[in-house]
Amino acid sequence: MNVDGGGASRFGTTIHITALDGIVNVNSLFTLAVFIGLAWQPTDPSNSLVNDPKCVAGPKIAEDLICFHVYSFSSFLFSSLVALSLKQAIRIAKTSCETRRLMIFTFDMCHINKNALRVGYLISAVGSVCGCGFLMMALVNVAQIKLGTLGCGSSHTYGAVIPLLTFVPLGLLTYVFFVLFAFTR
Q1: pTM value?
Q2: Residue ranges per domain, the chain?
Q3: How far apart are CA 85 and CA 70, in angstroms?
């Protein structure tokens, strides 16, 4: 695959296809988590472990939970569709390649717009990051429904929410760093 105008081996195509497959697979797992979350009935009183009536989550938190699940699903679906479109574009371009032999190596010479490929990867990554952010906010609402609102100061709620609000953003920052690093290469 020729992403940058020079001759690149099939290995380049395999790397791009594998990266896009990875995006779609991870998005699929998160989408499954969103569907499981949507199947849960947050207003069922048996779902809450809160004993203090002042700490019981109100209907606004339950509404936000559903909204964040839907936003998350939309973001993951968008990201997956962009990734699948890029994958299909690479495969279509690969079928119109000319093959050249140089000594014992065989090269496929394809012409794919490098900038369009990079922008597509970036758009797909943005969709995945947004989906993770919305899923994280939905999980904060799940913790508030199950363990009590953050305003009550429950140590159990904070014990669930603080690691979530620490590790997920750190993971997303790492992901964004490597996406931007790959974007500049």
Answers
A1: 0.78
A2: 10-183
A3: 22
